[in-house]
Specification:
By secondary structure, the chain is an alpha/beta fold. 32% of the residues lie in helices and 24% in strands. The radius of gyration is 23 Å and the shape is globular.
C-alpha cells in the first residue's frame, strides 16, 4: 500500500510538472519588405486589413522593413536607401506588433573605417526613430510590442572579414536602444560556422532558412531554397544564441545566356506558362524559343530561365526539420507578405502555424 501511494504521488508530480513546463506557443509572423504599402486583401476580404492577417493565419507580428543602408562610391560614405514610404497606410496592418528592420549591405562594412561605426549607428538610430515615430502617430493604437519589450532587427550578410566592424556597430546600436531587444538575422553559413564568422552581440537571432546557393552559378539547383543543402547546414552544434526561424514564400527566375548570369527576373510562377515563348527543359529550367521582349527584358533564343520558387511539399519538410533542430524558437516567420506568395503557399503557412 505504501509503495502504491508513493507511485501515485510520483505520477501526479510528473503530470503536474509536464503541465507547468509546457512552452508558450510561438508567435506567428510575416516580413513585409516593400518600400510602400499596398492593400492586398482581395483574396481575404475584410473591412480591417489587420483582421485578415490575424483571422486567416493567426499572425500577430510583422517585421517591417524600414530602410536599407549601402555604401556610396561617389560620396565615400554609407547612405540610406529604399526608405519605407507607406507610413500612413500601414498603421492598421501592424497594430498588433511590429519590429523595425534595417538592412545593411556587407560592402558598407568592407568600405567604411571601424572608427565610423559609432557615427553610422547614430544615423541609423535617428532614421529608425524618425520613421517609427511617424508610424506611431498615424493611428492611436499603433504601439510596437505593447505587451513585451520592443525590438529592433538588423539584417546583414556579414562575413569573417567584416565581423569586427559589424559587431562594433551592433554594440553601438545596443547602447542607443538600451530598452529594446536587439536581434540580428543569421544566415546559414554563420549559423554552422560561428567559430569563423563570430556570434553577433545581440539578444536574439533570426535564422533565415533560405538563400542557400550561388545564384550566378549555372549548375545551382535553386539558390533560394534546397532542402538537401539546408540539411547540411543543420548538421552542426547548437548555436549559442536564442533563435527564431524564418522561411521563404517568395521566388524569382535566374536568367542565363550560355553560362553567363544576366540577372534576376521578378515574375510569378505563372510567367513560364506561355508555351509560345518558353519550352520546358526540366521542372525548373525553361528555354526561350525565339528572340522576344517580355516585360522590360529582351531575351534571345536559347536563353535559360531557372525557376527558383520553393516546392511546397519540400518547404513543409524543411520546416519540420528546422523545428526539430531548434525546438525553443519563440517566433516563426515567413518572408514575405505578398498576395501571390500568400496564395501560392497558403496551405504550407497554415500548416506551419497550426503545428505549434
Amino acid at each position: 500500500m505504501y509503495h502504491s501511494k508513493v507511485l501515485l504521488l510520483l505520477l501526479v508530480f510528473l503530470v503536474l510538472n509536464a503541465c507547468t513546463s509546457k512552452r508558450t506557443p510561438p508567435e506567428h509572423a510575416f516580413y513585409y519588405w516593400k518600400s510602400d504599402y499596398t492593400l492586398i486583401y482581395d483574396r481575404y476580404p475584410s473591412s480591417d486589413p489587420q483582421d485578415s492577417l490575424r483571422r486567416t493565419f493567426g499572425a500577430s507580428h510583422v517585421y517591417l522593413h524600414l530602410f536599407d543602408v549601402d555604401w556610396s562610391e561617389n560620396l565615400s560614405m554609407p547612405i540610406p536607401k529604399a526608405a519605407f514610404r507607406g507610413i500612413y497606410e500601414v498603421s492598421q496592418f501592424i497594430r498588433d506588433g511590429y519590429t523595425p528592420v534595417v538592412f545593411i549591405t556587407n560592402r558598407t562594412f568592407e568600405r567604411m573605417l571601424d572608427s565610423s561605426c559609432a557615427l553610422l549607428a547614430r544615423r541609423v538610430a535617428d532614421k529608425i526613430n524618425q520613421l517609427s515615430s511617424n508610424i506611431k502617430h498615424t493611428h492611436d493604437s499603433v504601439v510596437p510590442q505593447e505587451k513585451q519589450r520592443p525590438e529592433i532587427q538588423i539584417d546583414c550578410d556579414w562575413t569573417a572579414g567584416t565581423k569586427d566592424k559589424y559587431f562594433h556597430f551592433l554594440k553601438e546600436i545596443r547602447q542607443l536602444f538600451p530598452d529594446y531587444t536587439l536581434s540580428a538575422t543569421i544566415r546559414l553559413y554563420p549559423y554552422k560556422y560561428p567559430d569563423k564568422t563570430g556570434i553577433p552581440p545581440v539578444d536574439r537571432g533570426m535564422l533565415m532558412c533560405y538563400n542557400l546557393g550561388n545564384i550566378k552559378d549555372v549548375s545551382t539547383i535553386n539558390s533560394i531554397f534546397d532542402v538537401n543543402t539546408l540539411k547540411q547546414y543543420l548538421s552542426g552544434d547548437d548555436y549559442p544564441l536564442p533563435l527564431d526561424i524564418a522561411f521563404p514564400v517568395f521566388g524569382w527566375y535566374a536568367w542565363f545566356r550560355g553560362n553567363e548570369f544576366k540577372g534576376i527576373v521578378h515574375d510569378g510562377p505563372e510567367f513560364i506558362e506561355d508555351t509560345s515563348s518558353f519550352a520546358a527543359i526540366d521542372k525548373q529550367r525553361y528555354r526561350i524559343k525565339t528572340d522576344t521582349v517580355l516585360g522590360e527584358n529582351y531575351y534571345r533564343a536559347g536563353d535559360i530561365l531557372r525557376m527558383e520558387y520553393p516546392d511546397t511539399a519540400t518547404l513543409q519538410t524543411a520546416i519540420t526539420l528546422v523545428e526539430e533542430k531548434i525546438p525553443d524558437y519563440k517566433r516563426i516567420a515567413f518572408y514575405h507578405w505578398h498576395q501571390s506568395s500568400i496564395m501560392t503557399y497558403e496551405k504550407v503557412i497554415k500548416t506551419a502555424f497550426a503545428g505549434r
